[in-house]
Amino acid sequence: MAFLNSFDISGYGLSAQRVRVNTISANIANAQTTRTNEGGPYRRQEVIFKAVDFNKVYNKALENETSSLEYSDPLKEGLAGLKPNPAIMSVVVDKIVRDDQAPKMKYDPSHPDADAKGYVAYPNINPVVEMADLVEATRSYQANVAAFESAKNMAGSAISILQN
Amino acid sequence: MGMGVKVSRAHDLMQSAMDYRAARQDMISGNIANADTPFYRPRDISFEDTLAQKSAQIFGDRSQTLKMAHTNGAHLDGIDTASSAPTMFFRDGHMARNDGNSVDLDVESTEMAKNSTMFNALTAALKKDSALFKSVIDASSKTS
Amino acid sequence: MTNIHSLKSLSTADLLANKSGNAVEGSSTDFAQELKNALGNVNQMQVDGERAMSDIATGSVKDLHQAAIAIDKAEISMKLMLEVRNKALNAYKEITRTQM
After folding, report:
1. Strand, coil or helix: B137
2. Which of A15, A67, A137, C57 would be B17's cystine partner, CB 3.0–4.6 Å?
3. How many angstroms away from the CA of B3 is the closest CA of chain C?
4. How far is B87 from chain C (nearest CA, A)?
5. How far apart are CA C57 and CA A28, in angstroms?
6. Under a CB-based contact definition with an 8 Å cutoff, are residues A155 and A3 in contact?
7. Contacts with A54 from chain B: Cβ below 8 Å
8. pLDDT value, residue B114
9. What does the pLDDT read at residue A50?
10. Is A24 an interface residue toward B (CB < 8 Å)?
11. Domain containing A87: what range?
12. pLDDT at A115
C-alpha cells in the first residue's frame, strides 16, 4: 500500500529523533559518572543520521517524469551539479559515536576514583550544550508529528471524495 | 471505460494537481525527517507552470503564452513546444549549518501547511464537480 | 413644409402602431429571450466555475473563497435550472393530458 508510505517517512523521522533524545538524556544523566565498565569516565555519545532512499520505484518514476535542476552550490562546497535524486528520502540512525576529547580533570585526592596524582577524570559534558540539543531534538520531533498529522489529514480528505 | 464522458474540462487538471501535491507532501515530510542529517539539502517540486500550460491548452487561452513579434511579413510564429515537465530542485535559500544541513524547519512547516490546504481545496472542488453532474443525472431520472 | 406635416402625422400613427405591435410581439420574444438569457447565465456560471477549479489546480488562485463561491454558484444555478425545467415539463404534460 504505497499511499501509507508517507506515514512511514515521518515515522522513521520520529524514531530517529527519539534515539537522539535518549542519547542526549543519557549524556545529561551521566554528566558526573567517573566510573564505567570499560574503565575511565563516561564518554559523551552523539547520534549521526543518514538519509535513505525510501521508495526506489517511486523515486525512479519521479526522476523519469520530471526534469531535475542541478545544484548551484552557493557556498562552493564542491557539490555543484548535484541533482535532487532520489527525491523522497527518510532518515535512519547511521551510527552512535563517542566523543574522544580528553576528560575534565579535577583535583580531589579523597575521591575513590582519584588517580596517583589525586586528579579525578570527569566526563567532558556541558549540560547547557546538552539542553540546547535536547530542545532542538524535541522541536524536530514535534515537526515530524505535524508532518504525520498533515499526511493523515490529506489521506482523510481523499477518502471523503467517496463519501457524500 | 470507453464512454468518452468528460465530467468537466477542469477535472483532469485537478487530478494531475492532486498527484503532484501528494508527491510534494512526501518530499516535504522527507525534508522534515532529515532536518538533522549532515549534508542534506531540502528538495521541492514545481509544477505550477506545467499545469498553467495545460490549462491554457484546455481553455484555449493564448494570454498565457507570449506571442513572437513579427517585424517582417515573412516571419513565422514560434514552434509550439510540448508542455514542459515539472521541475525538481533544491530549495536551498537557507545557508548550510556546520554539519552541511540546510533544512529550515519553519520554511518546511509553512510549505507543508500551504500544500495540504491546497490539496484539501482540490478534493472539495472535485466533490462539487461530480455533485453537479450527479444532480443532472438525478434530475433527468425524475422526469419520465 | 408639407414634408414636415406628413412626417409628423406618420410618426404619431406609426408610433401608436409600433407600440401596440411591440407590446404583443414583445411578450413572446421576451419570454424566449428570458429563457435564452437564463441559459446563458447558467452556462457562464459553469464556465466561471471551471475556471475557478482550474485556478485551484494550477495554484494561481488569488482568493480561495472567491473560487469556492464561484464553484458553488455553478452548482446552485445548474440545480435551479434543472428544477425549473422539470416544472415546465410537468406543466406541459398536464396540459397534454387535458381531456378535450
Report:
1. helix
2. C57
3. 22
4. 14
5. 50
6. yes
7. 30
8. 94
9. 93
10. no
11. 2-31+45-98+125-159
12. 86
For β-strands A89-98 and A67-68, DSSP reports them as: unpaired
Please, what is the angle between helix B11-33 and helix B105-142, to 10°?
Answer: 150
Which chain C residues are Cβ-neighbours of B139 within 8 angstroms? 79, 82-83, 85-86
Within a domain: A103 = no
- Compute the half-sphere exposure of residue A87: CA atoms within 13 Å on the CB side of its CA: 28
Q: Which residue has the cell 518546511?
A: B108
Chain C residues inside the 8 Å CB shell of B13 = 53-54, 57-58
B131: chain C residues, CB-CB within 8 Å: 75
Beta bridge partners, A97, equal A46
Mutation test of the interface with chain B: which of A4, A49, A63, A133, choosing the one with the most B Cβ atoms within 10 A? A49
Contacts of residue C17, defined as CB under 8 A and 6 or more positions apart, other chains included, come to: none
Residue C95 φ/ψ, nearest 5 degrees: -65, -45
Cell numbers representing residue A121 in the block: 577524570
Q: Which of A10, A143, A161 sits opposite B109 (nearest CB)?
A: A143
CA distance A25 to C34: 77
Hey, what amino acid is at B41?
A: R
Return all residues near B113 (Cβ < 8 A) that are at least 6 apart: A150
Calculate the average pLDDT of chain C.
Answer: 78
* Interchain proximity A82–B90, CB inside 8 Å: yes
DSSP label of C21: H
Q: What is the ipTM of this complex?
A: 0.86
Predicted structure pTM score: 0.79
Cα–chain center distance at B112: 14
Place of cell 559534558: A125
Pull the grid cell for residue A10.
515521518
Domain spans in chain C, listed from the N-terminal domain onward: 2-97
CB of B96 within 8 Å of a chain A CB? The answer is yes
Q: How far apart are CA B35 and CA C67, in angstroms?
A: 35
| pLDDT tens digits for range A74-113 | 777 777 777 888 889 999 999 999 988 888 899 989 988 8
CB A80 within 8 A of CB A70: yes
The reply to whether residue B52 touches residue C60, judged by beta carbons under 8 angstroms, is yes
Residue A113 lies in a domain: no
Please tell me which residue of chain A has the smallest CA distance to B50.
A66
